[in-house]
């Protein structure tokens, strides 16, 4: 997916270049135009990609993007929901996330057809929807594009902060246990910043490929070891509640949304397909990938919580017994996997940011500017990790604020604006449905952020009281 390029098509209004940078949807659009003939425009016929992904390859990309650190946090999500509510809630949230991705891609296809553009990304879809939407909303076109771009940057930067805390926490537990040290996790965050500052300076995707390959291998091995520990002894279901408490439900919702939501990956994957018509539909790439993700997340969350109960931590690997060499190996491997993944995670928002500012910087200062900018942002991310070194509420906060708004709320708004006012279905059911989903996204954002921040404040208060 990294190096596909769309060739210029003489019958299409624009030429577009795609890569991992398209997480920000950097499609260059043609000037505003109207449809000049009656022939139905099929955007799929005008896509010419040098190295298109097969349907199977696109499915693999989507699965790989979804099966990361989020799945390791599912047992703690179930701890905040209970067995029965957690299982049902995971499926429901998974279906909502799938639907929101579906309406985003479908709306993008319809916008491409209406505006005679072969391909659009996330931000450009939002922009064009407002450009051709109700006249009163058209001035918001530029804002909508900027909002998606900056929200994507914030999402990836904040997820990178979670990565730093996760890596440091994993090494903290292993090294302190093996050596008998009593070092704070903040010391490990500072040590983690050394390799982070080096990996984050890689600006060519081809140099990140070996890191990603090793990360994928380490994640597979870690999953296998984790499943071994979950199922190696008999499981006790009797002492696990079917429903937790209403006060912890916002953390459940925000954690599951953080784990499942991969909205930034969707458009690049779909845009690079040889047969994009296979992305939606039944079974389709999206439904197959998300169905698999929902099942895996529900299984890991359910049985992980049954195994570790209220002791479940922000990553299930942190619950593995450090007395066992196999558990130590798993914890080290997953920490290295996330460390090696950081380069790609950081590449995405930096590419968005650099595209926005590079024209304002003299070319002879591009190199030093990139080094300084990347270093400064990574140091800031490390500072956030130092300020909030607790993994569980941090994941909930990121999921609540960024993934709920970008992955749930924005697709609902985009579809509603595009179909307004005469294509919203009988009794305007599309509007009603999107208002409900949008309200759920706002609830997840506000309640999840409130509970997460409250937990973070409580942790610091407890620490201060303990120290005094």
Task: Explain this structure.
Residues 11-20 have a biased composition (Polar residues). It is found in: Membrane. It holds the Pfam family Aa_trans. The chain crosses the membrane at residues 83-105, 147-171, 183-200, 207-231, 243-267, 279-306, 326-350, 371-388, 394-419, 431-453. This is Amino acid transporter transmembrane domain-containing protein. The chain is mostly helical and 468 residues long. The protein contains 15 helices and no strands. It has helices at 55-66, 69-72, 74-79, 83-115, 122-131, 141-179, 185-199, 205-231, 249-260, 263-271, 285-308, 325-357, 366-387, 391-419, 429-467. The radius of gyration is 23 Å and the shape is globular. The termini are far apart.
Helix percent reads 55-70%
Integer-rounded radius of gyration: 23 Å
Percent strand: under 5%
Q: Please give the count of helices.
A: 15
Going by helix content, strand content and strand pairing, the class is mainly alpha
The dominant shape is: globular
**Residue windows where pLDDT falls under 50 for at least 5 positions:** 1-38
Gap between N and C termini: 54 Å
SSE sequence, one letter per element: HHHHHHHHHHHHHHH
Mean pLDDT: 82
Largest sheet: none
- Report the count of strand segments: 0
């Amino acid at each position: 997916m990294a190096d596909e390029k769309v060739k210029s098509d003489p019958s299409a209004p624009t030429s577009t270049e795609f890569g991992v940078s398209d997480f920000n949807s950097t499609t260059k659009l043609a000037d505003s135009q109207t449809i000049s003939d009656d022939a139905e425009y099929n955007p799929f016929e005008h896509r010419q990609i040098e190295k298109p992904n097969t349907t199977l390859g696109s499915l693999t990309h989507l699965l790989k993007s979804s099966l990361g650190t989020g799945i390791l946090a599912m047992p703690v999500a179930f701890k905040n929901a209970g067995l029965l509510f957690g299982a049902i809630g995971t499926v429901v949230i998974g279906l909502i996330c799938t639907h929101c991705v579906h309406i985003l891609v479908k709306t993008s296809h319809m916008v491409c057809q209406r505006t005679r553009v072969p391909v659009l990304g996330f931000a450009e879809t939002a922009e064009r929807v407002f450009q051709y939407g109700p006249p009163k909303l058209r001035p918001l076109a530029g804002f909508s594009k900027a909002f998606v771009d900056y929200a994507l940057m914030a999402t990836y930067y904040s997820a990178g902060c979670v990565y730093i805390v996760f890596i440091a926490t994993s090494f903290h537990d292993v090294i302190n246990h093996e050596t008998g040290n009593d070092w704070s996790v903040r010391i490990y965050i500072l040590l983690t910043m050394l390799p982070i500052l080096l990996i984050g300076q890689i600006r060519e995707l081809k140099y990140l490929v070996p890191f990603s390959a090793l990360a994928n291998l380490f994640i597979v091995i870690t999953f296998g070891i984790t499943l071994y520990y979950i199922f190696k002894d008999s499981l006790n279901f009797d002492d696990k509640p079917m429903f937790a408490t209403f006060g912890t439900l916002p953390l459940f919702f925000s954690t599951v949304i953080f784990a499942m939501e991969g909205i930034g990956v969707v458009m690049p994957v779909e845009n690079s397909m040889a047969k994009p018509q296979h992305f939606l539909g039944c079974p389709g790439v999206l439904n197959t990938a998300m169905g698999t993700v929902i099942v895996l997340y529900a299984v890991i969350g359910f049985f992980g919580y049954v195994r570790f109960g209220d002791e479940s931590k922000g990553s299930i690997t942190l619950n593995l017994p450090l007395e066992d060499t196999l558990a130590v190996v798993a914890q080290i491997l997953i920490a290295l996997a996330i460390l090696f993944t950081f380069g790609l995670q950081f590449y995405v928002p930096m590419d968005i940011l650099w595209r926005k500012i590079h024209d304002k910087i003299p070319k002879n200062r591009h190199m030093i500017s990139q080094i300084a900018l990347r270093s400064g942002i990574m140091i800031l991310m490390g500072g956030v990790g130092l300020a909030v070194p607790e993994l569980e509420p941090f994941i909930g906060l990121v999921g609540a604020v960024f993934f709920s708004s970008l992955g749930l709320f924005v697709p609902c708004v985009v579809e509603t604006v595009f179909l307004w006012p005469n294509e919203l279905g009988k009794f305007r059911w599309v509007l009603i449905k999107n208002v409900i989903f949008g309200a759920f996204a706002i609830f997840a954002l506000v309640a999840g952020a409130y509970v997460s921040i409250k937990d973070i404040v409580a942790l610091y208060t407890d620490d201060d009281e303990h120290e005094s």
